[in-house]
């Protein structure tokens, strides 16, 4: 799994799910901080982030982008 | 990813470091004894690492001051959130080609700037000073709208901006953003804006872009407020008596906000 794969999979999520993943995983907010920003209980953040990641994982599986294998050396 | 929801949620919270030591130890013990759960934990960790590798977010176009209090940290968090949404909106621009990124960020700020700040006017001055520009900051008391919150409004391609939120006594919230720079699809004339359930107006005065957004506000009242703020921002002067009268009258004749 690399950033490019995740990036394309993210585009398949609903805006609200991208938002919660952005807050927690990209911006690095804690559940409490994200809850304060979105004005919801901490438990709602836990539900939302787990649901968003489940959908992201499914989207990654559905993404056709596969990282190229790394070259170990130039063949002659 | 076939765990029951409660297990999946607990695993996510564990990977995020959200549990206190005792509960984290319980989850760790379960992971150690369950290969399927261990695979899920590894997949989650890999996903988080890949997300952290996505470039360009968050973005701060101005250097934020070091947070010293819970309130300051809260405002910086809001600004960082706005910055993330802004960067993300640019990132997903292919899906929303018609919406300028600053407008997406402004809509986000409108929803996130809900808390009240007793010292919002002073804070607004400080943020503008940090950002290094002198936006027009309207006094909307005549429209029975009080400046309730302020935050930095980082805009990509701009030196940094300012977001203010005014609140009324009948459920109205008006968000006002100002940001230096040009090329933000704004014009010197007043242009109507609609985005994500919000309506408002945007305009450019010299090298500063302005927008005023609200949700569920009487359209006539919003138009009067925007027209007066637009005119005053061009002169960079307080409202005159005629403007005060118009603002008060439009408020008296309007219905309460519906959002």
What does this structure look like?
The complex is a heterodimer of chains A (76) and B (259). With 76 residues, chain A is an all-alpha fold. Chain A is 64% helix and 0% strand. The longest helix of chain A is centred in the last third of the chain and has 21 residues, at 42-62. Chain B contains eight helices and six strands. Chain B has a six-stranded antiparallel β-sheet, sandwiched between helices.
In short:
The complex is a heterodimer of chains A (76) and B (259). With 76 residues, chain A is mainly alpha-helical.
Number of strands of chain B: 6
The helical percent of chain B reads: 40-55%
At the third CATH level, what is the topology name of chain A?
Answer: Arc Repressor Mutant, subunit A
Low-confidence stretches of chain B: 1-5, 56-68, 86-98
The number of distinct structural domains of chain A comes to: 1
N- and C-termini, Cα separation of chain A: 30 Å
Largest interface: A-B, 36 and 36 residues
Structural class of chain A: mainly alpha
CATH homolog superfamily of the largest domain in chain B: MucB/RseB, C-terminal domain
Radius of gyration of chain B: 22 Å
Number of domains of chain B: 2
Q: How large a portion of the residues of chain A is in β-strands, by DSSP E?
A: under 5%
Low-confidence stretches of chain A: 65-76
> What's the total count of β strands of chain A?
0
For the record, what is the CATH homologous superfamily label of chain A?
A: Winged helix-like DNA-binding domain superfamily/Winged helix DNA-binding domain
Arithmetic mean pLDDT of chain B: 77
Task: Name the shape of chain B in a single word.
Answer: elongated
The string of secondary-structure elements of chain B, in order, is: HHHHHHEEEEEEHH
* Text of the CATH class of the largest domain in chain B: Alpha Beta
